[in-house]
Amino acid sequence: MSDAGDVRAGHEGRERTFEALPPARGRGFASTWWGQAWLKALEDAALDGQQLGRGRKHAREGAVGAVCVRPGRITAVVRDRDRTPHRSDVLLQELTGAEWERLLDVVADRAGHIAALLDRDMPPQLAEDAAAAGVELLPGIGDLEPQCGCEAWDHCPHTAALCYQVARLLDEDPFVLLLMRGRGERELLDELQVRSVARAARRRAPDGAAEEAAGHTPEGVSAQEAFTAAASRPPLPAPPPAVAEPGRPPALSGGSDPAPGLDVAALEFLAADAAVRAQRLLAEALAPGHATAPLPTALTLRQDAVRLAAAGPPVGIADRLAAGCGRDRGELARAVRAWGHGGPAGLAVLEEEWTPADEALARARASLAAAWEGEERAPRLRAAGHRWTVVGTDVQLRYGRDGRWWPYRKERGRWWPAGPSNHDPAAALATLDTVPVPGAPGVAAAAESSRGTS
Q: Residue 321: beta bridge partners?
């Protein structure tokens, strides 16, 4: 919620506590129709307009503390101008069980009602449908019953201030009103899901099966019977054949003009990428040992942007990918190269800053020492975190969290991935030595020159 602060859910979602809202100077308390209806119920019933005015002032000045909302009651501590605290409660009648049943049926009958609630909206049609079913969702005159520690018998400045602040909460989330009426958000959505599934099943059920679809669940079977039945089932059909190459997605450009805001080139690129991924996933599913292979880790948005950029999109789409993942063109180019050498692991080595633990650092040093044992003198390396730079050169090794070594080379003043990883640091450096860098000595030359300086 944008200005409602932190929310804490109580037992089974039947209590929510909203942190104190900031002062509301210069703004109204309700902009939605249901928030305004809440305030109308307060203002139409209050006998003393001056008390309401003082309550509005208290609310605007931030005098209302954290607001606790639970079925039939809202509570907060409201402070006077002299900081004297008063516990204030406003009571609202909960819906009866029968009323809730009718309301849930009304909401479940229209998919748009559920979608609106999930979008933190309450369409007027929902309230009208509920009223037609005999359920009044919003309070009317006299429905907001005040109770305050100041012992006023009608709405006082404290209960009025509480109601004004709650209007702001209702603006953000109509589930606050439904909780006051007796049901928490999770409980309500679960019940709506049950009803929606039952209705869908009834629509699909053949003649004579409606009673079962309406909620009469057939009896289950024992585990032994289930296993016995499984053994007698026919084998699964043969898997589909492998696909030699990805399918060609349809061309979307040409003909009529696209809808406003639709980037046809980007959509064609995404369709082509989906075809490539589908072909690869099918090949992996048909490979031996696929059933026991670990599931791939889901990519983050930044990782997936690099994966898409590595597929070679047009320049405009590449720029959108760079902006979407918070990188400039150069950073995206380096990330794409890292992805090409090692996928998510290669990207992590490029972008993560970490220092190996003492044990991992000892293993890394031992691996480096063993790589040149009995050979020419090893190059001198300067370590900084997981990065090991060859002294006197523009080449570097980076130590990955998996114990592998990744070669890097400095290009245009920045470190760029220069090859795939290797468990052997000498082999990783050899990859660098095969690609000369203008103006910089090779690794072998650096090793030779370091003899006199180490």
A: none
> Which residue blocks in 13-96 are alpha helix, DSSP H?
33-45, 49-60
State the amino acid at position 183 in one-letter form: R
Low-confidence ranges of the chain (pLDDT < 70): 1-13, 25-27, 200-234, 253-255, 372-378, 433-454
- Residue 247 identity (one-letter amino acid): G
Burial of 407 (0-12, 13-18, 19+ CB in 10 A): buried
pLDDT digits (tens, 9 = 90+) for 172-210: 899 999 999 999 888 888 888 888 777 766 666 555 454
**CA geometry: angle at 77 spanning 75 and 83, to 5°?**
165
Place of tokens 């009426």: 181
User: Hey, CA dihedral for 163, 164, 165, 171, is it positive or negative?
Assistant: positive
Q: What is the pLDDT of residues 134-151, one digit of tens each?
A: 999 999 888 999 999 998
Instruction: Report the predicted TM-score, pTM, of the whole model to 2 decimal places.
Output: 0.45
- How far is residue 194's CA from residue 215's CA, in Å, rounded to a whole number? 9
Question: If residue 417 lies in a helix (H) or strand (E), which one and from where to where?
Answer: strand 414-417
Residue 67: Cβ-neighbour burial (10 angstroms; 0-12, 13-18, 19+): buried
Rounded Cα distance between 90 and 112, Å, is 31
Task: State the residue for tokens 């650092």.
Answer: 361
Q: How far apart are CA 181 and CA 136, in angstroms?
A: 10
